[in-house]
Amino acid sequence: METPGTLKRTVAVVLLAVSGAVAAFAAIAPAPEAIPVPPAIAVVEALPIDAEALVPSPASYIRAEQFQRGDSAGAFLARLGIAEPHAARLAKLPILRNLRPGTHVSAVVGADGMPLSLSFLNGRDSLVEITPDGRASERRADFETRLAMKSSVIRSSLFAAADAADIPDSVAMQLADVFSGDIDFHRDLRKDDRFTVVYEVHSLLGRPVRAGRVLAAEFVNQGRAYRAVHYGSGYYAPDGKNMRKAFLRSPLEFSRVTSGFGMRRHPLAREWRAHTGIDYGAPVGTRVRAVGDGVVEFAGLKGGYGKVVILRHQGQTTTVYAHLSRFAGGLHRGSRVAQNDTVGFVGQTGWATGPHLHYEFRIAGQARNPFSIAMPAATPVPPQQLPAFLAHAEPLVARLDLLANISTLAQLE
Ligand SMILES: [Zn+2]
To answer: Which of 48, 86, 118, 332 has a CA that sits 20 to 30 A from residue 19's CA?
Structure first.
């Protein structure tokens, strides 16, 4: 927030290593094809700078404030730097009397406290503008899209690592989704795993409003690096292989609730039979998803399994989801399900002492460890598109290289 005398100004500070989390912003227009690689990592920080030295007494300035619960319109307008009698006049406007707490309002205010315009986001994409005479108009907000590049190291969970680097949840979830064919985020994560992610940030009047798509990412899991680049409607490895696999690594979606280190084995030490599957401890009601496209072979009660869904996939593969609290609506024998469709919800029906999902992966009726089986991948980038894809991927991969090196450096310290 500006105060008379000092102006906080965004200044790029060059840092070589930040312990734990490395963050970088690059002010770049949306076109991901034309991303120049910055010569050094710029970490954006707000530093106080003597205003007089930079800005010779401005005629107007932009001020932004968040409307708080308990704020009156008048007090809020005063906080935006709007002087009387303008504040009292504008405070009568219904649109300003009905601001929702949490709304960020930007005001362009003259040096004398005269409002030149007020604006705020109303809903997702609609920008409301109010003129000094109190007329309100609404139009589609022109977001400015920049790219953020961030890295972090897993200490306790993916969400904790994302929080440490100020990475939004939506980006952490996309990250887990992009690598869901290679990594079981419930069981495979280890301390010191690390990741780098390049994603869009949509800003309005210089203020980041929300994160967009993940454009590129690297995940180093148990010493093995996986990389993905967004292209068309999917994600591909830098060589053009599709990141989507025939089977997801985990039947449970990654979320704040289910996140954490290697899901604890459920407390039942003596399983009800020779254990042929994987147990995921998770709260009752957690969504259980089909790991691959298939057809429901069985959905009902079956002895110790309790409520169980069995899916038949291509070839000789079947998957089993047991101890469910309930099935997905409309699911019955013969239903077709696509990868990631909900089949049911975690429970503790059958012989289970605590809520958990018992999951089996079978080939020709034999329980197998899904992690030891090479999973066929979905279609790669078509050969005729490969040159275009490689040209698109190159600058993104260069960024991953840059941050990967830096986070390695940070780790060595
Ligand atoms: Zn089990």
So the answer is: 48
Residue-level pLDDT at 40: 35
pTM of the model: 0.72
**38 or 350, greater pLDDT:** 350
The rounded Cα 272 to chain-centroid distance in angstroms is 38
Say how many Å lie between the CA of residue 196 and the centre of ligand 1.
34
Looking at per-residue confidence, does 126 or 383 come out higher? 383
- C-alpha 304 – ligand 1 centre gap (Å): 10
Residue 127 sits at φ, ψ, to 5 deg, of: -105, 125
How long a stretch of residues is the chain? Answer: 413
pLDDT digits (tens, 9 = 90+) for 297-316: 999 999 999 999 999 998 88
Instruction: List the structure tokens of 321.
Output: 């989801």
* Percent of residues, the chain, with pLDDT higher than 90: 46
CA of 339 to the centre of ligand 1 (A): 22
> What separation in Å is there between the alpha carbon of 352 and the centre of ligand 1?
8
Cα(345) to centroid(ligand 1), Å: 15
Distance 370 CA to ligand 1 centre (A): 15
CA 359 to ligand 1 center in whole angstroms: 7
Q: Report how far ligand 1's centroid is from the alpha carbon of 202 (Å).
A: 44
DSSP E strand boundaries for 177-316: 194-204, 207-221, 224-231, 234-236, 278-281, 287-289, 294-302, 306-312
Q: Which residues contact 141 (CB under 8 A, 6 or more apart)?
A: 121, 125, 126, 127, 204
- What single letter denotes the amino acid at residue 184? D
Query: Measured between alpha carbons, how far is 413 from 288 in angstroms, rounded to an integer?
Result: 41
Give 172 Cα–ligand 1 centroid separation in angstroms.
28
Give 136-195 pLDDT, tens digit per residue.
889 888 888 999 999 999 998 899 999 999 999 999 999 999 999 999 888 888 999 999
